[in-house]
Every structure is written in C-alpha cells, then in structure tokens.
Amino acid sequence: MNKTSLQINDILTNIHFKQAELVAGFNGAQNPIKWVHVLEVTNAQKLLKGQELILTTGVSFKQNSEIFLQFVQGLIETNCSGLCIEYGDYIQSIPTEILALANLHHFPIIVFHEEVRFVEITQDLHTLIINHQYSKMTQLENYSQLLNKEILSTQNAEQLLKILYNFLQIQIIFEVEGQVAIFYPNMTKKQRELLLEKKKCVATSSQFTIYPIYLFEHNYGEITLHSENREITEFEMLILDRTVTALAQVLLRNLYVEEKKGMEDAKWLEEWLEGGHSEEEVKQFILSEWPNFKQKESAVLVISLPRNEKNKQLDSTYFKLYCHATFDKKGFYPFAIQKKYSLILILLNRQDGIPMKERLRECIQKLETSDLLMGQEFAVGKFVTDLTKIHESYQTALDTLYISRNLDSPSCFYDELYVFHLIYKMQKHTNLEEMIRDYLQPLVDFEEKHGGELLETLEVYLQSNGSKQETAKRLFIVRQTLYHRLRRIESLIGKDFMNGQNRLVLEFMLLARKFTRKIK
C-alpha cells in the first residue's frame, strides 16, 4: 500500500478485484481514495466531495451513451478518484468516446466482467481506508514525538529539515528574510538559482507548496516543498505543519538565546546613548551585527512602561523580541536597551522608498494594539544621520515624552512638537512666565475680573487667520459678540496685534502659556 494514501493501484490487488480490469485512465492509477460510494443516479455531483471511488451497475443510464457521458463528466468535475462498472443487464461495453474522455483526464475506469457484491466491496474498502487512516495518525504521532525529541537537543534548523526530507523524500527550501535560503538536500548554486526562479514563475508555481512560519504575529520565514510529479497530500501537509511548529520553537529559542547574549552589550549601548563612542567604534559595532549595514537616518524610540499589574507580568525578553520582529519587518535594524520603567530602541533605517517616519508610525500603532502592555507611552526623538549624534535623538525623545505627557498630545514625534520643544528650552534658560505676562497679562487680568473668554477668542482668531466668520463658528457665538470681544482685545493689547511680528509673538506666547499651565 502507498505510504501516504490508499490509491487506485492498491485496490486492484484486492480479492474483490481479481476479475476486474482497468480499461481507461491508466495514468490515474495513483489517484488517492478517501471513500467509496455506490451511485445509481446520474446527477450526483452535489452528493460528492472529491476523491471518492464510485461503484455503479449503470441502471440509471443503461445504453444511453449521452447520459453515460454526462455521468462520467460529472465525476471528473467533482474530482472523483475513479469509476467501477459492473457489466451485466444494463451495460455490456463502454463507448469509445467515454474511454477517450477518461484517458484525457487520467480518470480510471474499472470494469467487473462478472457480477460482484457491492456491499462486500464497500465494507472491505472502508475497513482498509479506516485502518489506513489510523496507521497515518500513528505515523503522525510518532513523527511528532521524533520532532519533540530532536528540538530538545538541537539548535540547528537544518536537522529538522533532514527529518522532514527522510519522511517525505521531497525537495525542501527553507527561507528566512534577510538570510540565505537553505536547500535540503543541498544543490549546486546554479540549481538553487533555477529553482528559486521557477518558484516565482506563475507557470510552474503549482509545483511548489509554501507554508509560512510565524513568530510574534509576523511572517518570519517559510518552508517550500517542490514536487514536479504529484500533488502534496493532506497527510503530507500535516507532517509539514508539525515540522513548521517545531521549527518555530527552535527559531524562537535561538532568538531568546541571542537576546540574552545581547544583554552583555547593554553597557556599550548605554554609552552610545550618552555619546560616549566615536563614529568608527559605532560602525564596527553595527557591522559586527549586520555586515550589510549602510548608513542612513536613525532615531531613538522611548517606550515608557508604567508599573501596573499587566506590565508586571510582561516577559521583558519576549517583548524585546516582539519589538525586534516588528521593526525589523518594517526595514529597521533595532538595538534594545532595557531600563527600569522603559524600553529604549535605537532604530537604524535600512530601507528606501516608504518614508522612515511613516513606517515608524505603523510599528508604534502595532505595538499599541498588541495587548502586551497597558498605559504605555511612546516618544520618538529627532532623526539623525550621524551615528555619533544618537545621544541627541535620545535626549529629544525624553523631552518629547515629557512634553506629550503634560500636553496630552496625540503626537509622539519630536518634529511634530517642535514649537513646544522650543518653549521647553526657553523655560529652562529664561524667565518664560515673565515674558508671557509682558504680552498677555492685560487679557488675563480682564478675564479674572470680568470674564469674557478673551484669551480663547484671541487664540481661535489667530488660528483662523483673522477670519471673523470662521472664528464665530468655531466659538459657537454670533458675530456681534465676536466683534465686541475683538474691540476689547484691541483696547487691551493694541489695534496692531494682527500685524507681522506682533501676531507671531502672540501665537507663541499663547502656546507657551498653555504649556506652562499644564506642567505646574
């Protein structure tokens, strides 16, 4: 019996088929059989699921060649394994056009030259099929145990490919993004290149069965089976599924080991964040990790991890691996540094095309929706091209975290909060509140005594570029009320407040007042 499934040529040696003859569809002798049905109706396609062996006496079409032809055509369309016909009162021969159709589609037709008992045939073949399925499940269980035993001792994915090949005897290609493909059994360089080209070609793509390997919700790699002579069976797909699961475990374990080793580099990375390494030292360190590195833009991302029950249960190594996979997939070389309540990622861009900021935003959105954390905050520092300026990106990321946290800002990017960074620096080195009072105090004093919402009116009026209609609409007030407020503003800070530098300074001071009031 065939290794992976019960086939037409297996049943031809069965005791019930001693007087049977294969008269057409000889090239379909390896068709797999899932079940056996007795059919005496002509329109039975809706009753079939595919890969059934059909038994019939022909009572439904007798000597009507046209109905007989439609019957066979329907079986072929539903992907039946073959047709067994009993010669007798209803059929004594098979028309040549039906034999030609069967040969064309490799559809086996078997004839019984004498009367047979269909009930005994179906009972016997069903027993064979069930026993065969049980045998396959036993083989699958034994194969799984072999894999489990192997992954306890091996760190080499190729060893699992060897086990898969020994079982299936089919060419295997193992691919991980950014790494050279592994072929098992190995092939010459020219053969490997030709096979990869065939895999990309639509005309030959049916010869390849591709099974993805997922780690951290990402397509980390894939296993490809190449078979030119036959289709991959369901049982072989189960074998492949077990192998991919085992491979994922080995790959994940290897990543954990690498991440643990990476902790030894933490001190060096912290010194890099502080600007403590020369450009040559940084390049040598990066090239030791990624030999193909080419210098582009870089940035630092700070992920704040508040102390709460969910975050306490977080496996920090797993989270770093998840981040690594997320950013690697989007074209970054990531370096991770674990702090007490934060994770810092140095992100080196390696991809052209889609802007770096757009890909960064997608990665952050994925982390936000991953359900791994609770209450996390993100901050991206300024983009730098000089690797010795990473400390500047880190410092601006910390400033961005501080600013966005106090402003409840929806943005976590340094360049989108630039004016607040300017205000923040001024606050550190000047008496910013005194400057604010110089420009806005008359409005503040008036509001405290009389109300009137003059500061909000001024802010919206400036944002609306002096459009009274838009300002009234945004404030939900009638124009007369707006005119009254604008006259009051003019009386307090001057009629020329919309002119040139005056307007620019007022806009800046309104933002500065908002910022300083938030952080008090």
From TrEMBL:
InterPro entries: CdaR-like_regulators, PucR_C-HTH_dom, PucR_C-HTH_sf, PucR_dom
Annotated Purine catabolism PurC-like domain residues: 10-129
Record domain PucR C-terminal helix-turn-helix: where: 454-512
Protein name, as recorded: CdaR family transcriptional regulator
Species: Ureibacillus chungkukjangi
Origin organism lineage: Bacteria, Bacillati, Bacillota, Bacilli, Bacillales
